[in-house]
User: Fold this.
Amino acid sequence: MSANAPRHSVAVLLSGREQFSPYFGGAVARWTYEVYSLLREQLEITVFGFPTPRKDLYLLPHESSRLWQVCAVLSKIPRARRYEETLWLRALIGRLANFRIVHIQNRPQWVATLRTLGYRGAIVLHLHNDHLGHWASPQLDELAGKLDAVAVCSDYLRRTFASRSLALDAKTRVVFNAANLKIFFPREEIRQPKTIFFVGRFDAEKGVLQLLKAYELVLRTHPDAKLVIAGATNFGTHRETAYVQQVKELARRLIQSQGAHILFTEYLDHDKELPVWFQKATIFVCPSLFQEPFGLVNAEAMACATAVVASRRGGIPEVIGDAGRLVDPENVEEFAAAISELLANPPERKRLALAGYERCRQLFDWHVTAENWMALIDRVVEREPPAIPRD
Assistant:
């Protein structure tokens, strides 16, 4: 886009109840801020989402539906909650009509709702998770006719629906997530020996229990290895669930029986606290048990030149490439062996760390993601006329 060209107007709809905040928001809110803050000269952006206190907001224009309190009540009533999202969008439609493009984060069902409510601009659906894997082919084809583009964070995510709808696949582009290289960067002077680091949501699908079991095996050959587990059960909040208690009970046993060094940090502020833990770590581990669509923490570890051992699942191999170790996290012996081997082999660990660092700079820099996103927006705007809702 030339310097004198008119800016495209984009309304970003955050999914669910995610706050637009660096502390209380999640990965989708962070993506929205990081990318659009780099595109403020090219685009007019307003983010629509759940009310967020002004002091906690990211520094981009943000609005909420005037009916959010009614929606919050409906969400707690089983038979009424199905109307919550439609009510929220209906209250916004007057504002959305003023935007050339609506960017929907993670809610494919909103496409048809917006068309039914009369929105006739361009719609871009952006998927960070598998929201279409259970949709039948006719539903996917119908969705394709009502939107202008689909963006996914990995080719793995594209493959979850591509074979069932050629029409939707034709409108789909992979746009990787990324790390902020201004805050995630190497600091070898603070690197700590034999420190294994995990950060993520504290629940079963993230594989924290498997990590502890693998760590127990690592202690056989590296009794001085330290394990740091960061994360909470939700963004900015933490509950002592049965799963958390199970993990901590195993940790207590290892500390008492083997003198293990285990630290639970709980929730870390993403920008202010998390980077230094990546920079201190000898190895970062990502033992996700589910098909993780991308796994941003791996890219952030790579940005800090920290060697990575991660699950061979979902989109994680696309992030790691050949710059880390991929394992089956449920095979505790294989998982432990990969960690132990890297702890014992500093030259190989350094080789992987540098390879990951370079891979991150080339593929997972927010500036690269912003350029790719702007190219997608330009293609959407150039395609005339915009999508028209089907009867």
Remarks:
- The chain has a mean pLDDT of 90.
- The first helix runs from residue 27 to 37.
- The chain has two domains: 8-177+366-382, 188-363.
- The longest strand covers residues 8-13.
